[in-house]
């Protein structure tokens, strides 16, 4: 089972920003950052939710809506592969799977 699910992607062209996502399945540490500035930082060891959404806007002049969605199976989800999808302005831009 992979313990760390992380990736990053660029948002914007005239005003580019780097969005980073990192989730550790063992410790429950979640961090989402834009240009190395954390916008989400929390610990989650147990959850009944199978889908966890994080929505935020990026940019000042060139504004984009970003949605990051982590999905898992209902039963034994912490021990099975989990996926994280990223959307920019409603369009998919990145998908990452852990290697459970």
The tally of structural domains comes to 1
Strand content: over 45%
- Main sheet summary: 4 strands, antiparallel
Helical fraction equals under 10%
CATH topology: Lipocalin
Taken from the alpha-carbon principal axes, the silhouette is elongated
Rounded to the nearest angstrom, the distance between the terminal CA atoms is: 4 Å
H-E order: EEEEEEEE
Q: Kindly report the average pLDDT value.
A: 87
CATH uppermost class: Mainly Beta
Q: Total number of helical segments?
A: 0
Q: What structural class results from the helix and strand content? A: mainly beta
Strand order of the largest sheet: 1-2-3-4
Q: How does this model look, in words?
A:
The protein is mainly beta and 100 residues long. The chain has a single domain (4-97), classed as Beta Barrel (Lipocalin), CATH 2.40.128.180. The chain has no helices and eight strands. The chain has strands at 4-11, 17-24, 29-34, 37-43, 51-58, 64-71, 83-88, 91-97. The protein has a four-stranded antiparallel β-sheet with strand order 1-2-3-4, with no helix packed on it. It is elongated. 13% of the residues are buried. The model has no long low-confidence stretch (mean pLDDT 87).
Break the fold down into its secondary structure elements and pairings.
Elements: E1 4-11, E2 17-24, E3 29-34, E4 37-43, E5 51-58, E6 64-71, E7 83-88, E8 91-97
Antiparallel strand pairs: 1-2, 2-3, 3-4, 5-6, 6-7, 7-8
Quick overview:
With 100 residues, this protein is mostly beta strands.
